[in-house]
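User: Fold this; tokens only.

Assistant: Input:
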Amino acid sequence: MKYTVKQIADLMGMSEHTIRYYTDLNLLPVKRDSGNRRIFDEESVNWLMGIKCLRGCGMSIEDIKRYGDLCLQ
């Protein structure tokens, strides 16, 4: 399934601004459509669930970025 910024923000209980911030920091995988709009898929949902959990545990954005980079290696 594909999601827009608004749809994924509503699904995850987060603000659209937060979703855009995470994608701008490359914390969250995102694709772009022909109009250069962000399009999210199930992989994005999985990453967001992890990010939300880590933030809830008090992990900093910088540490989440490092952790995500290690997971991708």
